[in-house]
Amino acid sequence: MIDWASFVAPCFHLNPISNGSVLSVNANGETEWETRKAYHAVGSHDSSVRIKTVAVNEQGHGTHIYVDGNPIKFMQGHNLFGTDNLHSLLYGFLSHLCPMPDLYLSPTDLDRERWTRGDIELSRVDCTYMFDVGSSDNANAWIRYAEQYATLSHRGKGQIGKGSTLYFGKHSRRSALKFYPKGEEFKKHAHPDFLLNPSLLDYANKSLRAEAVIRSMELKRLNLNLVKNWDTDTCSYLVNYYLKRLNMSEVKALVSDQSENLKPRLKAVYELWKLGHDIKSMYPRRTYFRYRNEIMKEIGIDIAVLQPSQKDDSMKNVVPFVRIIEAKPMGIPDWAYGTDLYYDPPALKLVR
Fold first, then answer.
1. Residue 196, H or E segment
2. 12 with 108: CB under 8 angstroms?
3. What is the pTM of this model?
4. How many other C-beta atoms can be found within 10 angstroms of the C-beta atom of residue 313?
5. How does the average pLDDT of the chain come out, rounded?
6. How far apart are the first and last CA of the chain?
């Protein structure tokens, strides 16, 4: 599902939208620059998005708006599940914003045509996928394991951030991948109405969420910075693209004949790695990466993925990642269709 979107869309409105301004004044009292603060528009079950004017015409009327937030949560009140059709979602979301009080949005026919065409500029999109692991305890066990024994290509090892969230590339300006037990997050942040729904609670409690955060630079590189370049498969493609870059140790030693042909200096490094040592902390950076590349080339093993030490018991009760992906992906539950719990965006007759 699409869990977050930041974008600029054409949308006429008479009066610029803001929640005040932030400005810089020099020593002479002259304004050096000024920027509008975003207004918080409130949707279903008190969920909100940030919105402000980013362009005006010669008459001072707004022509484009910037929106930052979770459109599916704005429409249905929660983000346990939702649509992966970004194009239809944003069209329906923008249409829903227009009659809201205090915004006074009056999109022209041309504006709506451009929404339909997908002429909306994206600066961030979060794509998510849910895996049924049986319980929040299992989700936390997997996260603890992945923190120590998984690496993401070009991002390295993950780190635990706020709560139980495991981040790979948290501070990257391009993209990040994160995992967290959705049940814990849901119980902390969900509207009280949803906490009284046993079906939603059960759905949340057994899930591990994987979330790919794609920011402006990466969207442009992938030619996905415009909504019209997305289709209904793009969201799942992006999540799978990042998941496939995740290297997870199988936590088992190689048989001797797989490493006996390594050069002595590489075999020594490999033996240390097999015992659970962190090779990166033992050698200079250049030496470490040279050893890593040579061992990867020779026997296909990535020594960046830590092996458990002989005393390590963190393997207990771990849910293997491969089994999570292949066996139990979670979609929209049948009982949610046709209810207010699931927002089904309008079907669009695309204009190219």
1. none
2. yes
3. 0.77
4. 8
5. 85
6. 24
Pull the structure tokens for residue 52.
Answer: 């402000």
CA atoms within 13 A on the CB side of 294: 16
Tens digits of per-residue pLDDT, 276-309?
788 888 888 888 888 888 887 887 777 776 665 5
CA angle 160, 72, 244 (to 5 degrees): 45
* DSSP helix/strand/coil, 16: coil
* Residue 150 · residue 50 · CB < 8 Å: no
pLDDT at 322 > cutoff 50: no
Scored b (16 or more CB within 10 A) or e, 75-114 reads bbbbbbbbbbbbbbbbbbbbebbeeeeebebebeeebbeb
pLDDT in tens, 145-168: 788 778 888 777 888 877 789 999
Nearest Cα to 321, choosing from 200, 166, 154? 166
Q: Which residue has the tokens 């209810």?
A: 339
Give residue 332's identity as a one-letter amino acid code: I
Beta-bridge partners for 21: 36
Q: Classify residue 145 by burial, with Cβ atoms within 10 Å: 0-12, 13-18, 19+.
A: buried
**Alpha carbon distance 17, 25 (integer Å):** 22
Query: Helices 264-274 & 285-299, crossing angle to 10 degrees?
Result: 90
- 48-63 burial string, b = 16+ CB within 10 Å, else e? ebebbbbeeeeeeebe
